Amino acid sequence: MASTYTPLGVELQATGENAGTWGTKTNTNLQIIEQISGGYTTQSIAGGAQTTALSVSDGSTGATLSHRMIEFTGTITGNQIVTIPIDVQTFYFLRNSTSGSYTVQFKYASGSGDSFTFAAGDKGDALVFATANDGTNPDIDTLPAGDVTLTGTQTLTNKTLTSPKIGTSILDTNGNELALLTATSSAVNEFTIANAATGAGPTLSSTGGDSNIDINITPKGTGDVVLAGDTVKVGDSGAAATLTSNGAGTLTVTTGGAADLVLSTNSGTDSGTITITDAANGNISLVPNGTGDVVLSADTVTVGDDGAAAVLTSQGAGTLTVTTGGAADLILSTNSGTNSGTITITDAANGDITLAPNGTGVVKGVDGGDNTAAIKIAGKETIWVPAVAMYPSDTGGCADIEGTELASDINRPFLKVLAFDKDSDEAAQFAVAFPKSWNEGTITFQPYFTANTTNTGTALFKLKGIAISDNDAINQDFGTAQGTAKAHSGTAYDLDVGAESSAITIAGSPAAGDQVFFQIFRSMTDFKKIGIYHNPDFYRWRWRRRICRRWRRRSWRI
């Protein structure tokens, strides 16, 4: 009967067989058993992804699978598979000494039983048992090393775990889940936990292959991320920090209970504050530091809610000042300027304040009696000075005031006139104390007169003035006269209205409260100088003085 062999290659000799060679074969068997029990060998698996089959060598030594410890070597450039025959039953010490970050799997040549795999980058040792526990799908079991078992509970004291591989969870002492771990394929970023010496806190850092890595803390469902410290700091010591919402969601900063929210810088040192008071109808207080200002830099600042009027007031008894931050006009309006009048304060030396109503609206004022009326727009205003307010000059004066009845009819005008000679210069005088609104500037005048003739000649009237202040001498010369000429219509007693004169400068340096004396005269001398001649019988006239000023700026007209 021929010899048979075990799965590891030991020859089982038949009775009476191998006369003369029995001793040699027995010695070989003993050598095979010796390498099975404690032999060491290496197996190169260098190369790309491949399967390396470890085969039996019946009746001879040297078969790799017939050694107790097998060390895998070589540079691998792909995942490796190492197989043994399906009937091998023994245990192995495996060592992965390959170069290259790829997996090395140890398994039976066929079947779907369990196997053992060195993870990519795992260059360690393993104790595995080839069970041959099934003729079709046998298992490779991983055996624990030392006193650590798969099912037992051990306490490790003063042990160093270098890059331990942990499954999906870490349990507490009661066997409950303490932390869950989720593996990410080809992960390059991770947490680093560092302890600290006295006076410093431990650190949880985001580290890894990328340069800038977030730390993501995600609560479950609607849960919150709770930071229980009295002070929570964001940002590093060398750069500005930003607190922002994740994505397009609203960022809400609020207190956890009935307490005010206070925003400040530098932990409140040399900082203004924004305080949101926790109370029904609570205030929001913006308090600058020291003499600092509260600056609202938006193009448009809106105050008040949608359902009530808004009030802008000073804090306490202080003055409220509304001004622009630079060389720009200040404009006050309603409804963002739509269908609104405006108050414009012009930023300029001697700048105007312009009140402009909307459309046909008017600017109104309220007096002390709470009476409301339209405000008169400042401009050139008039003062009517009738002939009865004038008096002839003693020297070169016109005729005294007299009445002229144009018709014996009570329903028609009766004139009070000063008659001026047609052939010589004659004058009349009057005095005016101007209103306080006068700007003490120049004035103009416009004569109203008539003639008792059908002549169409031209009459030239001129006006000059002198301003006298309190305690000033009245006996002073008038200023320079300006005149205006008008041709009569040719019908007796038609009204003649002369053109407005040129600006008249009043002598005496006019001041508020002055009395201003005027002389009005009909100039025949100037007619001859400029070549104007006429031959009316006489002129009778009425004098009107129109006076006005634009607030602080305009001239006057009489």
Q: Overall mean pLDDT score?
A: 85
CATH topology term of the domain at 387-542: Jelly Rolls
Largest sheet report? 5 strands, mixed
- How much strand content do the residues show? 25-35%
Which spans have pLDDT < 50 for at least 5 consecutive residues?
Answer: 528-556
Q: How many helices?
A: 2
The computed structural class is mainly beta
Evaluate the radius of gyration: 58 Å
Q: Which architecture of the domain at 387-542 would the CATH scheme give at its second level?
A: Sandwich
Summarize the helices and strands and which ones pair or pack.
Blueprint (H helix, E strand, L loop, with lengths): L3 E2 L5 E2 L9 H17 L1 E5 L5 E4 L15 E5 L6 E5 L5 E7 L7 E5 L7 E3 L6 E6 L9 E4 L25 E3 L5 E4 L8 E6 L8 E6 L52 E3 L9 E4 L7 E4 L42 E3 L9 E4 L7 E4 L7 E3 L5 E3 L16 E2 L9 E4 L8 E7 L5 E7 L15 E4 L6 E11 L13 E6 L8 E2 L17 E8 L2 H6 L8 E4 L16
Parallel strand pairs: 3-5, 4-6, 5-7, 6-8
Antiparallel strand pairs: 1-2, 7-10, 8-9, 10-11, 12-13, 14-15, 16-17, 17-18, 19-20, 20-21, 22-23, 24-27, 25-26, 26-33, 27-32, 28-31, 28-33, 29-30, 29-32
